[in-house]
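Pair request: fold both.
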Amino acid sequence: MPHNSFYAPPAVAGTAFEDLLATFQLHVPRFKALPPNDRFRWKSDIVIAPGLGALRRNRYSADWSVATETSVEGLNIVLPLAGGVEATIGTRAVMAPPLTALLAPSPLSRQIRARCVGGEYASVTLSLEAEAVFRVLSALFEGAILSQLDLAPLLDLSNGAGATFNLLAQTIVSGMHGPRLLERSPKAMALLTEGALRLIFENVPHRLSHRLDRELLTVAPRHTHLAIDFMHANLHQPLTVIDIAEAVGISVRSLQAGFRQFRNTTPVAYLRRLRLETAHAELSSPENTLLVSEVALKWGFAQMGRFATQYRAMYGVSPSETARRASGTL
């Protein structure tokens, strides 16, 4: 099992159920809790991430449940690590074991119950902001509302798109704990959040899935050129694929089709290449005074290991080696 913040114990612990509820008060509006019947120990922490929402890690020693009442169109994603989650989502009763994500639109989450196995429950919950959800949904399906989407409530994390989503979730959690690099890189946070939501809406069944299969993608070369010009002009901004498509005046899927057809790549990969080129230019300048990690964050790279790997693949040397050569210390 990977040793990262995704699996690490939460920071705050206690035995009083009321103390645990107090950690929910500010971030879970209008909820009712059914307390555990057994002796109770808990560990929990929460991080608020602009552009994402709330990120919570939990561990419990006994079952308990929470019911919420809200009209806010956010999306709660619960990833059980031990035990499981029972939930009523709209009219559906479901059970999510480990390696399964529970997808719970906030207005439809009637009740969510933590179920211990062997006296143990652990989970990570991503509560994605209504604004971020609306933005991605609108780009894919104009006029769509999350609570009316009839989104399937379970996502298998063991393969395919689910496995990719699991890696994204681990990246987000790791980036918001420890050094909390994602707090310093809104570009990376915006891209990760959009990527996670797009994975869900493009791969989890719902009542508008058929639009993805039969949508006619018509895009001219000029749209791709306009998109590239927009990327160059706005590299300093936390660009997402939605931003680029809106600026060009086409759908996200048309934008993706254009880059596949005319550039043999994806908009995300092309934007990453531009950011790598810009980071390389800055690290190569003798006038640069920033650390390698600061340059990486400046241009949207939150994970130094991944940045270094991508940089070396593109330039044949490490970022730090480029910086040393520029400073004349080699």
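--- second member of the pair ---
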Amino acid sequence: MAPRIKDIAEKANVSQATVSLVLNQKPGVSTMTRERILKIARDMDYGSPRRDILSRTENGTIRFLKIAMHGHTVNRDHNVFISDYIDGLARAAGVYDYNLEISSFRGQPVEEIIKTVGGPALRGIVVLGTELAPQDIEAFGRVTLPTLFLDTYYDFIDSDFVDMNNKDAVYKIVNHLLANGHREIGFVRSTVETNNFQLRDIGFRKAVAALHVPIKEEHIYNVDSTFQGAYQDMLNLLAERPRLPSALFCTNDIIAYGAIKALRELGYAIPDDVSVVGFDDLPLSSVMEPALTTMQVPKKQMGEIAVNLLTNRIENGGGMPPVKVQVSGELIVRESVKALAAKKTAAE
């Protein structure tokens, strides 16, 4: 009788689900467990059509380090966002016959995280850089394995990066609002210091200057980046500054959700009283009422690009200069922006 997944699971002392993940080249299983399961499967002669799968540990493992330093952006609200990165990483890892292993850290010093990076099968690492400061990224320079940082970008650090083009994306948002007749545009920004948020801050200032849109400092709202924090902060700020601009750009969708909740509690209608634009295109944005206009980030493609670059680094070693990739996003136009009577484009 041919061996079954159940038989492999019993012999490896793991669940059938874990065996299925390994045999179908899915992430979420440690390198040691993965290699033990594959050895057992080979020894049991599990399915000759799967021989190509069972031999795929030869290229080794790429590890994705999901790091939350403070958890204000890397948290449950953004799990869907990060899972899209992981889908892209897993897809490309399969193309190159690498295992993808995921390790999660929360609130641990970078020095402690670096100590966990190692193992004979490990060929390279992709680090979620969302909440990492420049000194954190520089600390990874002591890692001898090829390393790439995803979801952050720094001009003056010699490392490989893949990130969204924040400045380009914000310009598209401001230009869309201007094209829909908005002359008073506010900015709901985060008090949390992450590099992507800072780049959006810079992008907003540059966009309004380039498009000749006057900005009032009273229309810049500083809020926390969590849903509850953004809601409470916006509620307090609106009580102090009840006069709104005609449109608000929010640093990300989570902040937009919190801001919209506060606006509605104070009796404002979206978009009749104020238009709102977010950033990230989280799943809720398409089904909320009204559906949120937002910037869609090609997260799966960015994950694939990260593995492509890392593989090139693994194969070519130190001969390559640092590679820094910024990927443009697409503005998803929905119902949260009102077209005012007097429309004008940036070119007019």
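Observation on the second member. Residues 48-57, 343-348 have pLDDT under 50 and may be disordered.
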